[in-house]
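question for whoever is on the cluster today: can someone run the full assembly for these? two chains, 622 residues total. i dont have access anymore since they changed the login thing
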Amino acid sequence: MISSSLIPCGQFKTSYARDTTIFLTPASRNFCILGLVVAMAAPWVLSNYLISLLIQIGFFGIAALGLNILVGCTGQISLGHAAFFGFGAFASAWLNNIFGIPVLLAIPLAGVMTTLLGLLFGIPAGRLKGLYLAIATFASQFILEDFFSRANWFTGGSSGAMAGPINLLGYEVSGDRAFFYVVLAFVVVMFLLGTNLLRTRDGRAFVAVRDHYLSAEVMGINLTKYRILSFGISSFYAGVGGALYGHYLGYVSAEGFTILLSIQFLGMIIIGGMGSVMGTLMGTAFMVLLPEATEAAVSTIKHVIGDIPAVTSALAYIKEAAIGLAIVLFLIFEPDGLVHRWRLIKSYWKLYPFSY
Amino acid sequence: MSETKSPVLEVRNVSLGFGGVRALTDVSFEVRQGELFSIIGPNGAGKTSMLNCISGRYRPSSGRVLLDGRDVTPLTPNVRATLGLGRTFQNLALFGHMSVLDNIMVGRHHLLRNNALTGALYWLGGARREELAHRRKVEDIIDFLEIAHIRKAVAGTLPYGLRKRVELARAMAVEPRVILLDEPMAGMNLEEKEDMARYIVDLNEEWGMTVIMIEHDMGVVMDISHRVMVLEFGRKIAEGLPDEVMNDERVKVAYLGVDDDEEQVA
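^ ran it for u. tokens below:
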């Protein structure tokens, strides 16, 4: 999906292997490794608060990548992603509490459980399209929410479930700084898996189903299978992201996984860029940081104009409205998301300083 | 073509109706291994409906379609693709947001064995080796159709003539025994038509694919086809060598209409 016009000159590939690398150029690969090193250093530099934001970007980003594979790549729609995210959180806590499975093993296992659930709820996708599918997934959101509040054996019902801390080789991972590395490792692995998926057979099949399902079928792609499989994979990511969320907070309750979070996940991938792995992370960062930024702006305004009650209460809504406004503005002005803007910036500098 | 070769595709008494409209009525024909077979007819004659019945997009109301003697009538298009049936579309049907290379790689879908799990693990499950091996095959097709310069371009941004060629490449990547071409030369200029005709003859003679083609350009059809079938209002009115078909009275009537004087005589 990347236009060849954005590859800098002087790139001569001499083997098919070199032509199928994840990064188009060695430079972009090195930048990514550098970024990873910088991220590794983050806990030593940043405040606890900023680290907690980065952790949020991590587990929301993993879940959003799943939604992007479903919505951005396969062209399906899901309004129930938060419910699968929540299911992963409960499943991991349950596996850990009831069976004593170590948390680091329980997290991927929770992902697998969520996958099975996603495959089940994905069955309507084999038959429904567009708005009808949206309503079907909307229903799955409410069915699962109801399940969370009633299934005492699994979720602890209205009182919620405790999610134990991560143990690594006998050491308990405690505190945001240590947890950050766990999330970072998961993000790297999950994003690598996602990238690989999208450059191999089944990833191409997803995009083919999205772009032209009739000819995809003539190419030998089983539409029903791939639509449902896409739900399964999307749920796997949601489950792993949710499990990390649960063990990060140490406590899982059903209130966190409402339709609002589902919409936020959609917002992340719309803002980041539909069908783009890197865009997912950009969009998630944007969505996590936006409320913080508006919060800071609002408190600055309060500080400047003084604490007038009428104004203060109006400003309180800005934080809520900002997310909706951001989605609308992106849909109008940058429907391809932040990742497209990023590519434009890169291609602008490609010929610098000889832009002709 | 020798008469001794066995039919690779048989269509037996196929009828197709949409509500009250009869799109096809009792059409039968055979296409033999290695043949270049054309279906012609006036607009609305049911040519594309016929192709859709063969590729599985439509299921005939009655009659059967046999591929290599096997009844494929109840099978879905994706299963038929794995049995060796490829096709192109009359209106372009590329995957618009994918690169040309990925478009053609999708054609390899049923030949590739890696799945979501081994694909995601890429280096560990042998997916990388497999993908590269198939890339090699795809490059042969790219060379043959002379589209190497656009292999990384996004398919949706290409001009019409090239898109038609990419679509042919994608259908070839399926490695079909029978390839169905729905108006491969529609909307092309003379030069592009000549190129396309050469590709079709080559993929029939060198790549050994049996070709079933719908085309309106009579010059091309009569030049390159081994046999021609004529449809009119969903019925087969003629079938045979190009010359025979050209001189058939009913075909002339179907294409040119009946002269008023002749009509009075008849």
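summary bc i know u wont read the tokens: Residues 277-305 of chain A form the longest helix (29 residues). Chain A touches chain B at residues 1-4, 7, 16-17, 19-20, 193-194, 196-197, 199-205, 207-208, 210-212, 214-223, 229, 233, 275 (CB under 8 Å).
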